[in-house]
Amino acid sequence: MSKSSSDKRHFIIVAVLVVVTTVVMGIVLNGVLELPVAASVQAHTVDWLFRVHMWLIAFLFALVSVFMVYSFVVFRRGKRQDEGEHFEGNTTLEILWTALPLVAVAVFAYIGVVTLNTVTSAPPDEMVIKVEGAQWLWNFTYPDGTLSTNELVVPVDQNLTMQMSSKDVIHDFWVPEWRVKEDVVPGLTTTVHYTTDKTGEFDMMCNQVCGLNHTLMIAKVKVVTQEEFATWQQAQLVKQDLQTASR
Predict the structure, then answer these.
(1) What is the rounded CA–CA span in Å between residue 114 and residue 46?
(2) Per-residue pLDDT tens for 167-186?
């Protein structure tokens, strides 16, 4: 077999092994690293980007490991001590391994910018809820300012804007099922946007170490139907009025 045919055979074998390894690693990474249930429109966007990165990581791992292991096994030192043919550089190869990573970085930078814009842009017709963090509890004030609670109840299929502030130290608003999180900073109003698309009960937690009872700074989040939300809101207003009258 000529040297040229032998080289092509090696490259074909390596290419097939890279594809197979990429597929196997991609399935493993996306299967083992299980994500929480996605319960917002933004969560689906974040999950998609996460999965794309997992496939890129699988490909890069395969590209490096397959070439390395194949070279160790096939071209290991044997009884023959013949030296390989001397050559200096390969212009085509050098252009490719410079241009292709640049293109990949540009593509992923564009995807990242578009994704960031998607998950941070203010939705139309949003419900604005004021969130106040304090050691070690959360308080939620609804749009008209007449209702304030320690649990977050919102309707499904609703655009939400959280306007957040802190009474003491830096906290972090995070509902894992909604994916996107945002710091809650004293002396500053920060915002984060969500569009709920799944009913259920979730935990909202502080994701920034904020003191002794940081791990206990958890609030219940309930995503309910529009009718259930209206009923809950009315019941809370009545309860609040009774508590005010009894003082």
Answers:
(1) 11
(2) 999 999 999 999 999 999 99
